[in-house]
Design goal:
Largest sheet: 11 strands, mixed
Number of strands: 21
Helix content: 25-40%
Strand content: 15-25%
Number of domains: 4
Shape: elongated
Length: 677
């Protein structure tokens, strides 16, 4: 264990980039979730994803309605995150895509692991020098947001104790697991009885490799390097999915005076250092706020290192804070009957109530919106209180530090203070919602306000996304950090032994390294740009396996221009072109013409080219056409010389119809040279 930080942490939270990770006891590890390019893990359904939104989902896809409830784990305890979720009163609609069946609907027991997915997970284990477990035991991991129809995610430990080489040094791999992906959220609808969340089941059950590193990440920049190294290692297998959403990075971040926070939603690797630094600043801010609040209540201060925290002291502090901030909810709807705010008027017209929660001693400490040196929102208690309320399904809350605002006047603020009997040092929070929801939201606000005396709470947070990208790198709360009670054995899937023969086969068939792939592609006559593109798009195996006698540069060009098409089709069409059955210019259009059809023979491709005027003109006829055009424009050719090539190419191509551009260029050049030399 590292030496405890017994001095007060230094740094200005308004300048997150200037915070020194080592001096404030920075710790960080990553969790990476990578989709595999296989069928589903436990159902043998295809791994196809459907490009649909809530507005374009076919009406014929069945829909099923469910509600989830919290259940006890093996130890007899209900997970803290599950307990909170059960109070949100949410319901779920599941849309059954064509690649989802009874297993995805939780109406049939799961099947054993997809063998290909298991082998890929073992291969990655070998690539990071991890030690495989001898027995694969599938576990159920409680999932509380409805993204799994069963209420849990199946996950299997594959290996432990690996290591990853990164630019900043070795990073340990604690565990590597194989698990199911969740359903895709399409929409969330607010109702008087709680939120209704709509999911598409096409992604549910796709195999994911989850890799959790040790807390060996040395700095925010090293976290980015680690994520890049993990992604590179996974892609070595050539069996992982590419594209947005196919790989997800979670960050476990803490500083000595804060606590462990799991941050989700780090899609863009370039944002990782910024997100981490802002979390460091947030934890530092709330540590300092905690001690400021403790001073106000004459309570013992927090030590600057959480490992020095005395549990008995914290228990006594919590008891006194609970006495100082009791749960007291007051209906103040009548005060706002004349409020001109459209938001307030609309809510009261719907029979919502305006509930008020007094927060004694917090006047001026909840805060208002301010920005740091780089334009990100500075941490403040008000934002955390609003985040806690939003988890209950409300759109937000009003607090006294920011009022009057939003159409709420000074007169309303004064009336609320009077009804709540507040003093100059006291604050309040308002929530406008159906009574049950406003009550839950303000209870959550009170819990979070009380936590302000105890560093930051351990929780899962999400990067704030606006218009598809991080807003500024700040985060919002999602749920409490799950505890050990969320995991229990899966009884429907038998355990499986890993034999020495199986592991030896994995070891002896490891994929090529990046350097080996570069050396292999360098033996082909392709340009440097083509080589780089083929490797970057992970097309090198296809390029090498199917190249055969095809011209290397032409095969590379066709493959790169049609990377989403069937490579066998691409090879067949290029072969037809090399046989003289169609022009180079027609290659891509012919590939498109057959892309949704069975793989055609060379005879069928040749006939298609002939029928559609895509067969190259006879060289003899082509030479006659070119000579005729050059002779008709002989004065222009003599004046421009080889500069006439460009203008005459278009004329010849139009006159010749289907013609090979290279052949036209060679014959035209020869004809011009005969006249000008």
């Amino acid at each position: 264990m590292a030496e405890a930080h017994v001095t007060e942490p230094e740094g200005d939270v308004s300048d997150a980039n200037a915070l020194d990770p080592q001096k404030i006891g920075f710790m960080c590890g990553l969790e990476v979730h990578q989709q595999l390019s296989t069928g589903k893990l436990h159902s043998r359904q295809s791994g196809e994803l459907y490009d649909v939104s809530i507005d374009t989902v076919p009406d014929v896809w069945p829909r099923f309605s469910r509600k989830l409830r919290a259940s006890r784990g093996e130890g007899g305890k209900v997970d803290i995150a599950a307990r909170f979720e059960s109070r949100r009163n949410r319901s779920f609609i599941y849309i059954q895509s064509p690649n989802s069946g009874l297993i995805e609907l939780d109406d049939q027991p799961p099947l054993a692991h997809d063998r290909e997915a298991l082998n890929i997970a073992l291969t990655v284990s070998a690539l990071v020098d991890a030690k495989p477990v001898s027995l694969f035991q599938t576990m159920r991991k409680t999932v509380v947001d409805g993204s799994n129809t069963s209420g849990f995610q199946r996950t299997t430990l594959i290996s432990t104790d690996g290591k990853l080489s990164t630019e900043g040094g070795l990073v340990g791999i604690d565990v590597l697991c194989l698990e199911e992906d969740s359903a895709r959220k399409l929409d969330t609808i607010s109702t008087e009885n709680g939120e209704q969340v709509i999911y598409n089941l096409d992604r549910l059950g796709l195999p994911l490799i989850e890799i959790a590193t040790a807390p060996d990440v040395k700095s925010p920049e090293h976290a980015k390097q680690t994520a890049i190294a993990l992604g590179r290692t996974l892609r070595q297998t050539r069996r992982v999915r590419r594209g947005l959403g196919s790989i997800r990075q979670d960050l476990n971040v803490s500083i000595a005076c804060g606590d462990r926070i799991e941050i989700k939603g780090c899609q863009d690797l370039s944002w990782i250092p910024r997100i981490i630094r802002l979390e460091m600043a947030r934890q530092l801010h709330f540590y300092r706020l905690s001690n400021k609040l403790r001073t106000g209540l004459q309570l013992p201060l927090l030590p600057p290192d959480r490992r020095l925290t005395d549990k008995n002291v914290e228990f006594e502090v919590a008891r006194k804070v609970e006495q100082a901030l009791p749960l007291r909810l007051v209906d103040v709807s009548e005060i706002f009957s004349d409020c001109e705010s459209k938001m307030v008027k609309s809510g009261l017209d719907k029979k919502y109530v305006m509930l008020a929660l007094p927060l004694p001693g917090l006047n001026g400490l909840i805060g208002t919106k301010q920005l740091d040196n780089d334009g990100a929102q500075l941490p403040r208690l008000g934002r955390e209180l609003a985040g806690a309320a939003k988890l209950a399904g409300v759109k937000g809350v009003f607090h006294s530090d920011e009022l009057p605002a939003y159409g709420i006047e000074n007169s309303h603020v004064g009336s609320v203070k009077k009804q709540l009997e507040l003093g100059d040092k006291d604050a309040f929070v308002l929530c406008l919602a159906p009574y049950w929801q406003a009550e839950l939201a303000l209870e959550s606000v009170l819990d979070r306000a009380r936590m302000a005396w105890h560093r930051v709470p351990q929780e899962v947070r999400n990067v704030v996304i606006k218009k598809g990208a991080p807003e500024d790198g700040t985060t919002s709360p999602m749920r409490p950090l799950p505890g050990g009670a969320r995991m229990y054995p899966e009884t429907d899937i038998p355990t499986e032994l890993l034999t020495e023969e199986h592991w030896s086969k994995i070891i002896s068939n490891l994929p090529m390294t990046d350097i080996e792939r570069q050396e292999r592609i360098s033996k082909f006559d392709v340009s440097e740009d083509q080589s780089n593109q083929i490797l970057a798009r992970e097309l090198d195996d296809i390029f090498v396996d199917l190249c055969g006698d095809l011209p290397h540069k032409a095969w590379a060009a066709v493959l790169l221009e049609n990377e989403d098409e069937n490579p066998q089709l691409c090879k067949a069409v290029l072969t037809a072109k090399e046989n003289g059955d169609l022009t180079r210019e027609a290659v891509n259009s012919v590939i498109q013409a057959f892309s949704q059809k069975p793989l055609p023979s060379l005879e069928i491709i040749s006939k298609y080219a002939l029928d559609n005027g895509l067969k190259p003109a006879d060289l003899g006829d082509l030479e006659y056409i070119i000579n005729d055009i050059v002779n008709q424009r002989i004065d222009f050719v003599k004046e421009r010389g080889m500069g006439a090539m460009g203008p005459l190419m278009g004329v010849v191509m139009q006159a010749a119809g289907a013609a090979d551009g290279k052949a036209v260029s060679a014959l035209l050049r020869s004809a011009i040279q005969r006249i000008t030399e």
